Amino acid sequence: MLSGEDSRRDAVKAIMSSGQRELVAELERLDGGARFGRFGSARLLENGDVFERACVVSVNRGGTLGLTVAIHPRNPYVPAFQAAFRYCEHAGSWWFGGAADLLPCYGFAEDAAHFHRTLKNHCDTLDPAFHAQAKRACDDHFRLPCDEPRGVGGIVFDHLCPPGPHGWRRAAAFTAAGIATVAPAYFPIVRRRKDLPHGDRERQWQLHRRGRHVEFALAHGAAADAETVRMTLPPLARWESGFTPEPGSAEAELASFVVPRDWASETAAAVG
Amino acid sequence: MLSGEDSRRDAVKAIMSSGQRELVAELERLDGGARFGRFGSARLLENGDVFERACVVSVNRGGTLGLTVAIHPRNPYVPAFQAAFRYCEHAGSWWFGGAADLLPCYGFAEDAAHFHRTLKNHCDTLDPAFHAQAKRACDDHFRLPCDEPRGVGGIVFDHLCPPGPHGWRRAAAFTAAGIATVAPAYFPIVRRRKDLPHGDRERQWQLHRRGRHVEFALAHGAAADAETVRMTLPPLARWESGFTPEPGSAEAELASFVVPRDWASETAAAVG
């Protein structure tokens, strides 16, 4: 018979691996072109019609089981997306952690509001106070080294271990539901923007923004192994020195767009 | 009248700024196309005929005066080059530091031997034992996070403060000569390789190698401000997952080429 710990780890493994399988299938359907390849415990799609790179990496290191998702779309109007789901056991205790955030190159209020509302609805199933905390933690955590937000945020939480006899089960179910929330939170945005016409100007801006993401990932990714970090990086990134977007341009507007804001409460009319 | 410290700092400032001016002029002549622009204390050339990016940044932060050089050539057969020259004063003591290393995408023994021999000749003017130490320090320091050498090395030294009444003057002159050694150490290699024909395969390999350099720079560049670090980064870099060069290819050979080796002692015949 399995110990309580072993059966818990097995249950989390099953959640992570079925989550990985489903997300991979959904991403392939949305891309419509490329298929995911397998690299050890990672599933990786490259050079798709919609996604330049998408990876769904299953992690099993020390006391941690997890799933890391990174999506770098081809069209600069489609925001990049990152998420991580984590289960840890250490010194007899256990907890869940997670994060999801949206990284646009161009600000669409409709997209940011949809993303945050979907995450809030998911968080509310656990506890009505949870979203506000996890949103604030994300706004605080995902800041670039020069203290600009790297995107429009999302949620970050750690050390989730609800008390009570069903605490573990509730947190595990919340994690499974979290993985299943990637598609409704992100895919409608992808569909809305993936065919918007764009040219070299938008592509260069996207590569510039990706440079910032690389800086962030390499500054904060030390906990993961080098190959996993690399897989989550954008395939191509640019560094331009002293580059400032033209005042008044859509590129220049991003800076004020990514300022932390209570997106989930904004009505559709207000953001339309 | 100036204090001893002030006049020393002024003398170093003069060395750094005339070094910057001369190197910029030499790089412009070698490029033949683009000119350097000015960004605060940085001089930056972009999109040249020979250099995709070259920067010569003068640094004046706290007790440190310095010059940082980063050169990213367009042709994948031309190695990238980095160097830094530094003067520090702290709590009544002073010292000089420096580094220079060569980062090829393709291994040419002739280039590596020329580079190391030129640096050794320069180091020998200070002390015949100096080069071996500074070469070993470079081999130890410039290793990528996954413990592969990032290039064929060069020299690294710090806390250089020769004793005696002329110690400061000797170290300052060594630094001025070091800046003047960039051209004879690196430019003949640039001239030899800059017109070699290449295609997309070589370009993709170059972008892949640059990805490794970005990882290194961001892991070790925390001491400098973000804008200076960005200026030294390659303009464009690629991350490919699970990418391994074809066995036996020129790209695959790089791994064994960049292993630390006593390049300066190899005769022209042996490396021909």
Describe this structure in words.
The structure is a homodimer of 272-residue chains. With 272 residues, chain A is an alpha+beta fold. Helix content of chain A is 45%, strand content 23%. In chain A, strands 1-2-3-4-5-6-7 form a seven-stranded antiparallel sheet, sandwiched between helices. In chain A, α1 runs parallel beside α4 (167-193) and α2 runs antiparallel to α4. The longest helix of chain A has 28 residues, at 4-31. The A-B interface holds A 39, 42, 44, 46, 53, 55, 145-146, 207, 211, 214-215, 218-219, 222, 226-227, 230-231, 233-242 and B 39, 42, 44, 46, 53, 55, 145-146, 207, 211, 214-215, 218-219, 222, 226-227, 230-231, 233-242.
Helix-strand layout with pairing:
Two copies of one chain form a homodimer.
Chain A: H1 4-31, E1 37-39, E2 42-46, E3 51-61, E4 64-73, E5 80-90, E6 93-103, H2 109-124, H3 130-141, E7 153-160, H4 167-193, H5 200-220, H6 226-232, E8 236-238, H7 250-257, H8 268-271
Antiparallel strand pairs in A: 1-2, 2-3, 3-4, 4-5, 5-6, 6-7
Helix pairs in contact in A: 1-4, 2-4
Provide tags for this entry.
23% strand; 8 helices; seven-stranded antiparallel β-sheet; homodimer; 272 residues; alpha+beta
Concise overview:
The first copy, chain A, has eight helices and eight strands. Chain A has about 270 residues and is an alpha+beta fold. In chain A, strand 2 and strand 3 form a beta hairpin.
H/E series of chain A: HEEEEEEHHEHHHEHH
Q: Quick one: biggest sheet of chain A?
A: 7 strands, antiparallel
Which whole number gives the mean pLDDT of chain A? 91
Widest sheet of chain A: strand order? 1-2-3-4-5-6-7
How would the global form of chain A be characterised?
A: globular
* Unreliable parts of chain A: none
Number of helices of chain A: 8
Count of beta strands of chain A: 8
Assembly of the depicted chains:
homodimer
The value of Rg of chain A in angstroms is: 18 Å
Structural class, from secondary structure content of chain A? alpha+beta
Strand content of chain A: 15-25%
- Helix percentage range of chain A: 40-55%
Q: Span from first to last CA of chain A?
A: 57 Å
Show the largest interface.
Answer: A-B, 29 and 29 residues
